[in-house]
Amino acid sequence: MPGFLRPLFRLVPDDTRIQFMRGRIAGLVVSAILSIGSVILAFHPGLEQGIDFRGGIIMEARTPGPADLGGLRGAVSGLNLGDVGIQEFGDASTVLIRLPVQGEEAATQQAVSRVRGALEAAAPGTRILRTEAVGNRVSDELFTGGLIALGISLGAMLIYIWFRFEWQFAVGAIVTLILDTTKVVGFLAVTRIEFNLTTIAAILTIIGFSANDKVVVYDRMRENLRKFKTMPLRELIDRSINETLNRTLGTSMTLFLSALPLALFGGDALAGFAWVMLFGIVVSASSSIFIAAPILLFLGENRLRRGTEAAARPAAPQPARAGGTVAERRG
């Protein structure tokens, strides 16, 4: 290849020979601990569910000057609408008001009007920028629909990989995807990022990216299984990971750098989605090496190489016949 067509910068040298499978036990143990901890955190203290899944009313308002959160909270709390939350949203003059579900649509409209009046009285000139209201029944349907979407996504990935690869590859990929998803849920529980339809979309995106990365690594492993018929599976997996390491890191860094500006400058509407994406990219890239590959090694060590030991073993010398060969008899 001409020099001007060669890449100016490579993340990993072409002759890299890192023995990743030496740390296979540690990788699986750490991943299991993190996933179990994430599941526990998902139930206690639980996820910070957004209005999509919890139901209620959200109002975004802007005051003429810096908002007096104490005065606004006192004005709205005096309406006896339930547990009211008011917080700064984006800048000092923008506030976010959260109200619990008020019942039917008429009660919701009445509560919104009362809050608008209370805000205007406490801070004249206050403008309502947006209002969102979700009832209990709708929030339950959205929550169920989001979980169904996650389940269908994982099932579709399992079917696709099962038909494309041997079953050992499919099991390794789907177990890794489940572990990746649980870690993302744990990240939501720790950071208190709202769990809503936007974060569901981020998780689905991460599942797709993670599955694509594992398919690329698995493809190289399958090619090397056909190319190096006598190479031990552990050595072959290390070789395949090293050969695809530039592609894995390059794709992950590109996507990471694309999502980073959204997390830093995208505002509160996009920050949750972007931070979940950033965490998921790191988890997906590492799990392809330290989770999916060790699982494949444990499942396929005595199956994917079946019959190659006999082929690799040198043929035993044949015993000489009683009469010797024709040449020997003539001699």
Protein model, in words:
With 331 residues, this protein is α+β, with helices and mostly antiparallel strands. The chain has 2 domains: 16-47 and 139-306, Up-down Bundle (Multidrug efflux transporter AcrB transmembrane fold); 56-134, Alpha-Beta Plaits, CATH 3.30.70. The chain has 11 helices and 4 strands. The protein has helices spanning 24-46, 51-54, 69-77, 105-122, 136-164, 167-191, 197-227, 233-265, 268-300, 308-312, 326-330, and strands at 56-62, 85-89, 91-99, 127-134. It has a 4-stranded antiparallel β-sheet with strand order 2-3-1-4. Helix 5 runs antiparallel to helix 6 (167-191) and helix 7 (197-227) runs parallel beside helix 9. The chain is elongated. The protein starts with 23 loop residues before the first helix and ends with a helix.
Unreliable spans: 307-316, 320-331
CATH architecture of the largest domain: Up-down Bundle
What is the alpha-carbon Rg in Å?
29 Å
Percent helix:
55-70%
Apparent shape: elongated
Task: Tell me the span between the first and last alpha carbons.
Answer: 60 Å
CATH topology of the largest domain: the name is: Multidrug efflux transporter AcrB transmembrane fold
Number of domains: 2
What is the CATH homologous superfamily assignment of the largest domain? Multidrug efflux transporter AcrB transmembrane domain
Number of strands: 4
Oligomer: single chain
Report the portion of residues in β strands: 5-15%
Spatial sequence of strands, sheet with the most strands: 2-3-1-4
